Amino acid sequence: MEPVLPARPTAMAPLLEYERQLVLELLDTDGLVVCARGLGADRLLYHFLRLHCHPACLVLVLNTQSAEEEYFINQLKIEGVEHLPRRVTNEITSNSRYEVYTQGGVIFATSRILVVDFLTDRIPSDLITGILVYRAHRIIESCQEAFILRLFRQKNKRGFIKAFTDNAVAFDTGFCHVERVMRNLFVRKLYLWPRFHVAVNSFLEQHKPEVVEIHVSMTPAMLAIQTAILDILNACLKELKCHNPSLEVEDLSLENAIGKPFDKTIRHYLDPLWHQLGAKTKSLVQDLKILRTLLQYLSQYDCVTFLNLLESLRATEKAFGQNSGWLFLDSSTSMFINARARVYHLPDAKISKKGNISEKMEIKEGQETKKELVLESNPKWEALTEVLKEIEAENKESEALGGPAKYLSKEASTLLSL
């Protein structure tokens, strides 16, 4: 068997048609770019980094993480850029930072350092070409970045400010969220690039991907756990509305409680009144958050990890607030019983047609009974195994040399499991 050589890092692909159009518009007028996920906000930022990798420019980059900075620097190094971006961290002394700034180019610096350097005039504000802001939707939450932009605009009226984000959902909460973000960014132009944009849609229509969807069904025990969690969620929502009659709104429904923005919806209604709420209401809000997490972890984690999580949460009273009442519901009992049934089996335990286990199992728990391991596998891993075997079989039958299979996952826990 021939050894598999590691893949060499390749340069970033050139800009697509709609990306070039957006870059030209942004070069002409500063603004906030809000594009759909997957349309390449990082590619736009990378293009502007490459344009300003020159000693004659001084460009600051905000809201980037260390892994992203390393990625951008490596990509620029592959393309043969001589004046690579530099990082300004606490390892560089305050006296030598002025020399780093005066050398020009692109600078990755932490917000805390930039605030200090702006206030002490250690950074030549009049020489700054501009500032690039990544993850611009967080500019309101992170007050340091907004303060940096204010100091920059007060001392430099000519420098550009260009902001990028691919999280359009973050702007649908609060009052005038887009307006407040643009005010903190000191920009007047808003570039909206959804997937149904004319330029984007016409380009994507020419290169349609072949998508194969595989619907994975849960096991009976997983369905029983899911039903129990949904019943508990519904009970908590009803109790929350009972304690707070002013929250009788359509947004606080079981259907919306499953969605991702539900936590923001709760905060939107309760934050102005949080200091007036009682301990019971705050406990219910915490319970809703934990139950939503359990619903998500049911399909992410294996049966043993999920059971350990349930047992640890029940053992830790503080995690559920002050003795939450839903722990005594029948649905809660069903959730714990079925979670144990996925891991081990008691000889006298019987499973009903609905997937629930009889009460004999609860009786046997207190006795020393030999447990038979079940270790129910997650259905998604079985589906993934079948897909990988199918890919391997097609590569063997094909005359062309098959490439590597890439697995993408939204959750980091899934990647760690692999």
UniProtKB/TrEMBL annotation:
Sorted UniProt keywords: DNA damage, DNA repair, Hydrolase
Highest taxon above the source species: Eukaryota
An individual GO BP term: double-strand break repair via homologous recombination
GO terms under cellular component: nucleotide-excision repair factor 1 complex
Listed GO MF terms: damaged DNA binding; single-stranded DNA binding; single-stranded DNA endodeoxyribonuclease activity
Name used for this protein in its record: ERCC excision repair 4, endonuclease catalytic subunit
